[in-house]
Design a protein that fits this description.
Blueprint (H helix, E strand, L loop, with lengths): L6 H16 L5 H21 L3 H15 L5 H13 L10 H16 L4 H9 L9
Helix pairs in contact: 1-2, 3-4
Pfam families: DUF6285 (PF19802)
InterPro entries: DUF6285
Protein name: DUF6285 domain-containing protein
């Protein structure tokens, strides 16, 4: 039986192919759209590479902040609702730490080269993702 490549390896190969072979052969709008497609593939790749422990930590942080259990989407909605209702404010202990933690982790996937993300990591490297 042959070993098949992992999904992350396949996605990396597609992104490389798009950038190396396809983009130079195109012009104008189609070239731009192909670069966008390669960036989308890279983003999905980074999402797949996120450790399961990060989702577990996000859930634990939400549960601790809200003092309830549940899954991440439900807890996130509760957090948003409580912020909108004024029940949770910037003065709520743990809120700003949680929001910074979530923002850094989302930027790690969405925009890892974003200058603001890099500066944030420099200011608080203790919370930095392991491969930042």
């Amino acid at each position: 039986m042959q070993d098949t490549p992992r999904d992350t390896e396949l996605l990396a190969a597609v992104a490389e192919f798009l950038r190396r072979d396809v983009v130079p052969a195109l012009d104008g709008s189609l070239q731009f759209q192909t670069r966008v497609a390669a960036n989308v593939v890279d983003r999905v790749l980074r999402e797949l590479e996120q450790p399961a422990a990060q989702a577990e930590e996000e859930q634990q942080r939400l549960e601790s902040l809200l003092h309830l259990g549940g899954d991440i989407p439900t807890l996130t909605q509760v957090l948003c609702d409580r912020i909108a209702a004024g029940e949770i404010t910037i003065k709520t202990p743990g809120l700003t730490d949680f929001l910074w933690w979530v923002t850094r982790n989302k930027l790690r996937v969405d925009q890892p080269r974003y200058a603001g993300y890099r500066r944030a990591l420099e200011r608080s490297p203790a919370d930095a993702p392991p491969d930042a």
